[in-house]
Design a protein that fits this description.
By secondary structure, this protein is of the alpha+beta class. The protein has a single domain, classed as C8orf32 fold (Roll).
Length: about 140
Amino acid sequence: MDKRHLTTLEICEQVFDLPFRYSRDTGPDYWQTPQETESYDIPRGDCEDYAIWVWDKLVEAGIDEHEIALYWHPWTPHQSHISTIVYDGESFLVLDVLGYSVYRITLEDIQEAHRDKWRFLTKESVGVPQWDDCKRRMSDG
């Protein structure tokens, strides 16, 4: 993929169409590195594994990593969910393993839907142990 010839939306749609198999963690919540996700015949993992893997694919395709974040929000009263979110200059594009397509959302939509129970995680974010551990393992190579 060459970003010079594709819009951010087109790149996101191509990455979204890559093969991936959703599978839940069987033990404690563990956030895989992109390399761990790709260690299977078909890349697989749960929502945060997909979101981290997609982030890596978007960067490989030419999207600036500062335009990408993990979008962590409530799913049920006792469970959260993570998607990949990309800012394209006018709104956010969401890539969600449980979705059927890439979709647009505004910051106002996010605030209205989740009030104060959401956050964006970037490479600079700290304080979420699973994300801190995953970033450490990615940097260790």
